[in-house]
Amino acid sequence: MNANKLKKFLLNLEKEIKPYNRTLKDVDVNFRYSENSDVYRVNSVENDLYDSEYNKIVESIILKHLNN
Q1: With contact defined as beta carbons under 8 Å apart, do 46 and 64 qualify?
Q2: Which residues, in sequence order, are CB contacts of 56 under 8 Å at separation 6+?
């Protein structure tokens, strides 16, 4: 998946929940390995890999689950 697909999903979700007086602040982000696996709450998003030539252009991001 690329970041643009995630952005489009979130923009559509924002429109969907707005009539119910909800915002994206009201929506938790979770992760599952499969439909039947445990749920892990995503705690942060960070830059991951950068371009090999300049090491300045972000090429991927990661969603992190921190055990706290």
Answers
A1: yes
A2: 50
What is the pTM (predicted TM-score) of this model?
0.82
C-alpha distances in Å from residue 25, one per residue of 18, 19, 36, 52 = 11, 15, 26, 35
The span from the CA of 48 to the CA of 3, in Å, is 12
pLDDT at res. 66? 83
Reported as a single tens digit per residue, the pLDDT across 37-53 is: 999 999 999 999 999 99
49: its two tokens: 């890999």
The single-letter DSSP state of residue 11 is H
